[in-house]
Design brief:
There is one protein chain. The protein is mainly alpha-helical and 702 residues long. The protein is built from 37 helices and seven strands. It has a four-stranded antiparallel sheet with strand order 1-2-4-3. Strands 6-5-7 form a three-stranded parallel sheet, sandwiched between helices. Helix 8 packs across helix 11 and helix 26 runs parallel beside helix 28.
């Protein structure tokens, strides 16, 4: 008896609640393994079997009904309501003593172990990866939180932090906030990455030229003095990659009466509608300029000395003119201006010719650079060495053995100018895929990780076109191999997985990607990842299935894995797992709802829940899950793409109204806003039916 008391006291003195720990205690007819949750049971079973062995004990689960009936109320209040019976199978005369001795050894060994919490801190490149993935999926809260972590991390310079803030504001269309940044004026005067220049051009369009207060952009361009304030920026990018940027530069080309510049911009316009808008700007009336005193009768003309045209072009930001003049007639007089112009503009096309011309002048003794010029020459040499013509060249260099520290920056600054991956032929695309897979384990793996969002974007473009290819599977594989499989990486994988399923893969592709998805789940399986598991199951259940046995196998393993953590899941998560099990043709389990969580959902009893979404079968899915959570009055959906009376009526009548902004029509959401304030709408942060329930739970205060 003393030995048993010592065994119990030793464990109780070290036990911590809420940490999925376990205890071996005597009860009724022998020793039992007690824990607060199923995770504690799992941990305890592993240790007990390891120390005692199957020849000494068999671990049998105690049913919930027996525990409810036989455990005293005082014991239930401790929270140790999960139990397994350690049934002794060794019936030798000294079997009981042997079992007790092994239990003592087990408790002594486990008790002497130092438990330390493993704190996994993401690297700086992982934080940047997650930040840009959050921007890609428009997750404002996560992006803001990650940016704060990057600032606190201290590994990013003040200049690059400015660029990250500009990326953040641009992703959410917060142009006025970007314009109000205190260092914007200084940023306009300094050398910056081309991608940042393109973003600033979009800011100029939305803050200076667009809006109901402007009669038309051309008049606003003149009246607001855009060239005076933003001239160097506007003229630094000859042909921008965005419609807004092209609009700003086209107005500048009109002001400069530069027909060649106007033609280049019109040729780059991607859609007929955009070309029509640009031509309309050219024909729009201009507000007549106010006459200056020198223009009035009776005033003598003022003689203005003739300025150096190349220096004047550089001062006004017409960098392309400076470069063109120098390439046509390379002279020492304009060499340093040409170096600065090509670096400030970031134009890859003409950089090698400028570099060759400057080197030739130096070899002939016709040029002696200043210290500033020598620095620019070294920077241009580095720029030319790092430049790439397309994705194929970039991927092959990334996969090489030579360290390329600027690989991510090169891709980020030039990707919009490169041919999209969906336009490459099969041989080129295969070369990119092979190189990316090789780079994932090479010396430049961190650079690949830093621009995974660009690869996700290219993959999404291919899938949006209604086709799938090997590149999409490669990006899914790259996401699955990330060392830190963070929430942002999980979300990015889900988004591409959903788009890939929608296109309709072949049977072979389907099996490969489902195997990949199952490996991810086996790697990350935990209570925190069950939400991801639910989304995966939801996607495979709602998508065409070319291999039914493969889908069933995935469902069995993922659902069984989720159930292992049922003690730490919310009521909603357990309901969703069981509803999906039934929907996939698997046996479902009964769920006992905790009173507190049941009370949260009871707020929907007898209420009308409305939902606006363009997703199919939303009403059916939501009604099935809510029926398990509460006694909801009714669930009604609307999927009109225009402002109909039915949509407005549902938005007004519903007690709770979910607006799926991920799958919606702009005109319809505008109609909802007109009859129901935004604060009374429930806006899911996640895609899919599970995202609707989670948003509803948050609105209820769960």
């Amino acid at each position: 008896m003393d030995r048993i008391e010592g065994l119990v006291e030793s464990q109780v003195s070290r036990f911590r609640t809420g940490a999925s720990e376990w205890l071996v205690l005597p009860w009724t007819n022998g020793f039992y393994l007690f824990s607060e949750d199923s995770e504690g049971q799992r941990r305890g079973r592993e240790v007990v079997v390891a120390f005692l062995g199957p020849g000494v004990v068999s671990v049998d689960t105690v049913t919930e009904s027996r525990l409810n009936a036989e455990l005293p109320p005082a014991w239930k209040s401790t929270g140790l309501v999960r139990a397994s019976f350690l049934r002794r199978v060794d019936h030798r005369p000294n079997g009981a003593a042997e079992m007790l001795a092994r239990l003592e050894d087990m408790v002594a060994s486990v008790g002497g172990r130092q438990w330390t919490a493993l704190e996994i801190k993401p690297t700086n490149s992982e934080l940047l990866r997650d930040f840009r993935l959050a921007l890609l999926r428009r997750d404002d809260d996560s992006a803001r939180s990650l940016l704060d972590q990057i600032v606190l991390n201290g590994h990013v310079s003040a200049e690059n932090l400015r660029y990250l803030r500009i990326e953040y504001f641009a992703a959410f269309g917060r142009w006025a906030e970007m314009r109000a940044m205190p260092y914007i004026s200084a940023l306009l005067q300094t050398r910056r990455p081309r991608a940042i220049s393109e973003t600033l051009l979009r800011m100029v369009w939305w803050t200076e030229l667009s809006g109901p207060e402007h009669e038309n952009p051309r008049i606003a361009f003149n009246e607001r003095g855009v060239l005076g304030e933003f001239g160097p920026l506007v003229r630094s990018v000859r042909v921008p990659s965005t419609p807004e940027g092209r609009g700003v530069c086209f107005l500048a080309a009109l002001a400069d009466e530069d027909v060649e510049w106007q033609t280049s911009i019109l040729e780059r316009a991607e859609e007929p509608e955009e070309r029509h808008r640009l031509k309309a700007l050219a024909s729009a009336p201009e507000r007549e300029a106010t006459a200056t005193p020198a223009d009035l009768p009776g005033h003598a003309p003022v003689l203005v000395p003739v300025a150096d045209p190349v220096a004047e072009a550089f001062r006004e930001g017409r960098l392309a003119d400076v470069v063109s003049t120098f390439i046509t007639d390379p002279t020492a007089r304009y060499a340093e201006l040409a170096l600065q112009a090509i670096l400030d503009s970031g134009e890859v096309e003409h950089a090698p010719r400028v570099l060759a011309a400057v080197r030739d002048l130096g070899k002939r003794g016709a040029l002696e650079l200043t210290r500033h010029g020598r620095r620019d020459l070294a920077e241009l040499e580095q720029f030319v060495d790092a430049s790439c013509a397309d994705w194929v060249e970039w991927a092959k260099r990334l996969a090489g053995d030579v360290r390329w520290a600027d690989a991510a920056a090169v891709a980020r600054n030039n990707a919009e100018a490169w041919p999209q991956l969906g336009t490459l032929d099969a041989q080129q695309l295969a070369a990119v895929c092979d190189a990316l897979l090789e780079a994932s384990g090479g010396t430049n793996a961190d650079q690949l990780r830093a621009c995974i969002d660009l690869l996700c974007r290219e993959s999404a473009r291919i899938l949006a076109g209604g086709s799938s290819n090997d590149f999409c599977q490669v990006v899914l594989a790259l996401l699955s191999e990330q060392d830190n499989f963070s929430e942002m990486v999980r979300s990015a994988y889900l988004d591409l997985f959903a788009a890939w399923l929608e296109v309709g893969p072949s049977a072979g592709e389907y099996e490969e990607v489902l195997d990949l998805t199952l490996k991810i789940w086996q790697r990350i399986a935990s209570p925190n990842a069950v939400g991801w598991c639910i989304n995966v199951l939801e996607l495979v259940a709602d998508s065409p299935c070319p291999v039914d046995s493969k889908r069933t196998g995935l469902a069995v393993l993922m659902i069984d894995g989720a159930r292992l953590h049922s003690g730490r899941l919310s009521f909603r998560e357990r309901v969703e797992v069981e509803v999906l099990a039934a929907g996939l043709g698997l046996p479902s389990q009964e769920i006992e709802a905790p009173k507190i969580e049941r009370d949260v959902w009871s707020a929907l009893d007898g209420k009308l829940v409305g939902i606006y979404s363009l997703l199919p079968r939303v009403e059916t899915h939501l009604r099935a899950r809510l029926a398990k959570l509460c006694s909801v009055g009714d669930v009604k959906e609307n999927h009109d793409e225009v402002a109909t009376q039915a949509l407005k009526s549902l938005a007004e009548r519903a007690d709770y109204f979910i607006v799926d902004t991920w799958h919606a029509a702009h005109q319809a959401t505008g109609a909802i806003d007109a009859v129901r304030p935004r604060e009374k709408q429930i806006l899911p942060r996640l895609k899919g039916h599970s995202g609707f329930l989670r948003a509803l739970e948050e609105a209820l205060g769960g």
